[in-house]
Specification:
single chain, three-stranded mixed β-sheet, six-stranded mixed β-sheet, L-arginine/glycine Amidinotransferase, Chain A, alpha/beta
């Protein structure tokens, strides 16, 4: 996974007289194609009337950036689109640049959002990838839905793996990407939840070998879970608190992690007993960057980043 250390991050939108900060007027509640794709974090935030403390949010983001640098990621920090930082254009989660697409070699595969309110995020990100990275934008065909948070792709010493979520994305969308990227192994996972990365992460050791899969078992279709087990890679089950939570209690999204060989960066340690100890035995260094107000939007470290695969 030699190229996974090169990562795109979107900067925070500047505070203006008209826009008082990220999610200052509340968190938008988005829904995908089906009931299971509801973003429970934003529902929780809406019910509890949560508004971010902008100074805490900013300081957490700065610490997150410093943590990624400490983990030896090479960062491309791109500016937040000015067009989205207006009072009439706030119903989005554009800072989660993961969701807008995936960069592979000379192209940017633009997401086709199943949530209409987020569709325009893809437009601005695609323009950015053309202008800043000189990439050719490729569109997912009609009838195909794909959101970057439903993709977990990695290149290891044993070949490439593509894990795709069937929450806000569908088979046609994943099949289109697979035709381009041609991974050695593809597994599509049917689950509840906003995106696959809110309940699943692979683990690679310092030798760049896929050694484990961390997953919120109760949120995954039993058939998909069985398919994961058949990969003969250790499966580490986590409780809901390390994912989206239980509804009454919002989860920490510790599983929403950015990985590279021997490194995992999360916004929280895993609360499920034994998980942190198991990662230590696997030789994985853990770095924690709290993102207290980002989790109310249903996102964390993985959502805020997007790897470049050359």
């Amino acid at each position: 996974m030699k190229n996974a250390r090169e990562v795109i991050v979107m900067g925070l939108p500047p505070r203006t007289n008209d826009v008082k900060g990220m999610w200052y007027d509340g968190y938008p509640v988005h829904k995908g194609e089906c009931e299971n794709s509801v973003n429970y974090a934003t529902v929780y935030a809406s019910k509890n009337n949560i508004r971010p403390d902008q100074e805490v949010l900013k300081n957490d983001w700065l610490n997150f950036i410093n943590t990624l640098l400490l983990a030896n990621f090479h960062l491309h920090i791109v500016p937040f689109p000015a067009e989205l930082n207006k009072p009439d254009s706030l119903y989005h989660d554009a800072v989660f640049i993961r969701d807008s697409g995936i960069m592979y070699k000379g192209i940017w595969i633009k997401s086709r959002f199943s949530v209409p309110d987020r569709a325009f995020e893809g437009e601005f990100s695609a323009r950015l990838m053309q202008e800043k990275f000189d990439k050719t934008v490729v569109m997912v065909p009609e009838g195909g839905f794909i959101e970057g948070g439903d993709i977990n792709y990695l290149e290891t010493i044993d070949g490439s793996y593509y894990f795709g979520g069937l929450s806000r994305s569908n088979r046609k969308g994943h099949e289109f990407i697979n035709e381009i990227m041609k991974p050695d192994k593809t597994l599509l996972i049917d689950s509840e939840g906003y995106h696959l990365d809110t309940l699943f992460t692979p683990v690679v050791n310092k030798d760049n070998k896929l050694v484990a899969l961390i997953i919120a078992k109760d949120s995954v279709n039993p058939k998909s879970y069985a398919e994961l087990k058949r990969l003969n890679i250790e499966v580490i089950d986590i409780e809901a608190i390390d994912s989206s939570g239980t509804g009454k209690e919002l989860g920490t999204y510790a599983v929403n992690a950015l990985i590279s060989p021997g490194i995992m960066v999360s916004s929280s340690k895993f609360a499920t007993p034994g998980v942190e100890e198991r990662l230590e035995k696997l030789g994985v260094s853990r770095l924690i960057a709290p993102l207290r107000y980002f989790r109310f939007a249903g996102g964390s470290v993985h959502c805020l980043t997007n790897e470049i695969y050359n």
